[in-house]
Specification:
By secondary structure, the chain is of the alpha/beta class. 46% of the residues lie in helices and 18% in strands. It contains ten helices and ten strands. It starts with a strand and ends with a strand.
Length: 328
């Protein structure tokens, strides 16, 4: 298998037919040694039925259905673990990232690169808030992160088998795939492209999901928030010492100032620092708690093309590093 295309899908029923049509056209030069893997992330619409129809029309299309909605990054990981190609192409089902630049990516990878990632030179069809928040997110993440993560990029990329194997060897549960590829290293290069508007449906990253994603990215690749919490603690101690000196000085000079505004201000400041520090510590402790459980990332409930060579005698399908029991 030379090429695998991996597409996570969540409630993308309307987009699947056009997605498959464009992907089939793009992979035509490698159709005898290519596969298209569509991962249904527990959709509540007709996404799985659309994937089954696509598989019927084009057996090159494989479908994986997760037993529940696990999020974009886990669905992407499921597809990456199932991919058999020497090169793996990732994109989203909304077609904002054009699959037609795959041939250019393939040519660049022929120059001995392991990762060719797409960098958005402009973002059509997105709100001003979305553009500004995305711009700020990558710059803030790079300022805080211990790993340099390319600005204005997503999971739209072509990777080699050795780069993918390195990422799949990472056991963390809270996945930030683009950061994991950046951490893995190897030779990486960007290709710029204009991002198109979504062809159908609505975004799967509202503000709440974006904040959760940003938190996973930050806590997964940086300990700087913990260092900031420590520095804030020292700052609060310094302010406390200054205020204590002022109070005792006022007592000695018999010029105590009446009122409660300064007291309330001090209590609010120290309470805020303490709560912020506890919140940062809670995020890291929560990640440790989830990692310690060692639960599988996902379970498969259906698959359009089961691979019997990956089945053990007890009927367990092995997907990735851990056995996954089929639920249906």
């Amino acid at each position: 298998m030379h090429l695998s295309v991996v597409v996570p899908c969540y409630n993308e029923n309307a987009a699947i037919p056009l997605l498959v049509e464009r992907l089939l056209a793009v992979v035509a030069p490698w159709q005898d040694s290519a596969e298209i893997i569509l991962v249904d992330d527990g959709s509540s619409d007709g996404t799985w039925e659309a994937i089954e129809d696509a598989h019927t029309l084009a057996p090159i299309v494989r479908g994986l259905r997760l037993s529940a909605n696990r999020g974009h990054q886990v669905a992407l990981t499921a597809g990456l673990e199932a991919a058999r190609g020497a090169r793996i192409f990732m994109l989203d089902a909304d077609l904002q990232d054009p699959p037609e630049i795959l041939p250019d990516m393939m040519k660049i990878m022929d120059q001995n690169f392991d990762v060719v990632y797409g960098r958005r030179e402009k973002r059509d069809g997105e709100t001003l808030f979305k553009r500004l928040s995305a711009w700020g997110f990558y710059r803030f993440l790079n300022a805080m992160s211990d790993v340099s993560i390319p600005n204005d990029t997503g999971d739209f990329r072509l990777v080699s088998r050795r780069a993918l194997d390195a990422v799949l060897a990472m056991p963390e549960r809270s996945r930030f795939v683009r950061g994991m590829f950046a951490w893995a290293g190897f030779r990486q290069v960007a290709i710029e492209y204009p991002r198109a508007p979504r062809i159908a449906g609505e975004t799967k990253y509202p503000l709440r999901a974006m904040l959760r994603f940003a938190t996973d990215a930050l806590t997964g690749f940086s300990t700087k928030p913990l260092k900031i919490a420590t520095r804030l603690s020292f700052l609060s101690l310094a302010v406390t010492a200054f205020m204590a000196a002022y109070v005792f000085g006022s007592l000695l000079m018999f010029s105590t100032a009446p009122g409660w505004a300064s007291v309330v201000l001090a209590i609010s400041f120290f309470s805020g620092v303490q709560l912020l520090t506890l919140g940062i510590l809670g995020e890291y402790v929560g990640r440790l708690y989830m990692e310690a459980k060692q639960r599988p990332l996902y379970f498969l409930s259906q698959e359009t093309q089961p691979t019997t060579q990956n089945m053990d005698p007890e009927g367990e399908a092995r997907v990735g590093p851990a056995p996954v029991r089929r639920l249906a």
